[in-house]
Specification:
6-stranded mixed sheet; alpha+beta; 12 strands
Length: about 300
């Protein structure tokens, strides 16, 4: 312990924030009464805490990418010991749900919410100026490595493929169940869900893109399930044509393997509108993850 202080009275939240900011100054005013017009949300699987590209430098490169993006909120996967260091680099609030799942925010985390299995999901209520927003970070398994199967030219049985993918849909059902009160209230308090789904989307694996998808059309069950619940895929909201705008997030470190979009930012609720969405897969020195990040900019409406 480098420094310790004792007080003979309770400290207010403003006093605590002032003390904290002397050590970790924030780049923005976090005044709760401030009206916020827009919000930049990133989802990012950082590949074993960013450690795969250097334990002393990988997490710093993750932080540099986030800083350059000006993301306000990050739903993070594969946090693995780097979360607190990255949050301190950013001066952000931090919720660590498990070794895998975390949420970082420029704005206060008002409350942690009931979540599904800790390794797969963490939910929190954030205070964005005068607006409340529910944020969910998600990681799903990869029940079948169809990318390698395509790379190796192996013929896949579509029925078996779908059956294996149903496991991810069932995991997502558990996550949705944990959010059921928030989903019921989403027209008042919108929900943003971001994560690594480890599978493609039925919006991408369509007839017009068969030539880039190993000749397959695949109705991925998890993305269809999200659509059935009224969640909007923000990247596909902005870029309707999957042939022209593929939004590849898997994988920037190996352009010779089958390329796919497997990381998503979804939202539900009348209080948000998608302004822009993009993929980030570069760093000036060396890109530190096997996943690209996705960054979506939202506009608050009906405030």
């Amino acid at each position: 312990i480098d420094d310790i202080s004792l007080y003979n009275t309770d400290l207010s939240s403003d006093q605590i924030r002032e003390i904290y900011n002397t050590y970790f100054p924030s780049e923005r005013d976090l005044t709760l009464s401030k009206t916020v017009d827009s919000l930049r949300v990133m989802t990012y699987n950082i590949w074993h805490g960013g450690n795969e590209t250097g334990k002393g430098i990988g997490y710093k490169r993750i932080a540099e990418i986030i800083k350059a993006s000006a993301a306000d909120i990050i739903t993070m996967q594969e946090t693995y010991g780097s979360g607190a260091r990255i949050a301190d680099e950013l001066g952000y609030y931090f919720y660590l749900r498990s070794s895998n799942i975390s949420i970082m925010s420029r704005y206060p985390i008002k409350e942690t919410l009931k979540s599904s299995m800790a390794f797969n999901n963490g939910n929190a209520l954030l205070e964005i100026g005068k607006q409340l927003v529910v944020v969910s970070s998600v990681w799903l398994n990869y029940p079948v490595d169809y990318w390698s199967e395509i790379d190796n030219g192996r013929q896949m049985n579509l029925k078996e493929w779908i059956e294996k993918q149903e496991g991810n849909r069932r995991t997502m059902e558990g996550i949705i169940q944990s959010l059921s009160p928030e989903i019921a209230a989403s027209n008042g308090v919108p929900i943003i869900l971001g994560g690594d789904f480890n599978s493609g989307s039925h919006l991408d694996w369509v007839e017009s893109v068969k030539d880039k998808n190993g000749g397959y059309v695949m109705p991925f069950p998890t993305s269809k399930y999200m659509e059935s619940l009224g969640f909007k895929d923000t990247f596909r909201e902005v870029y309707k044509d999957p042939k022209r705008f593929r939004g590849i997030t898997w994988t920037p470190i190996n352009p010779h393997t089958h390329q796919d979009r497997i990381d998503y930012i979804y939202f539900k609720g009348k209080g948000l509108k998608t302004l822009d969405s993009k993929v980030i897969d570069t760093h000036p020195v060396r890109y530190p993850s096997d996943h690209a990040a996705v960054l979506t900019t939202f506009l608050f409406i009906n405030q």
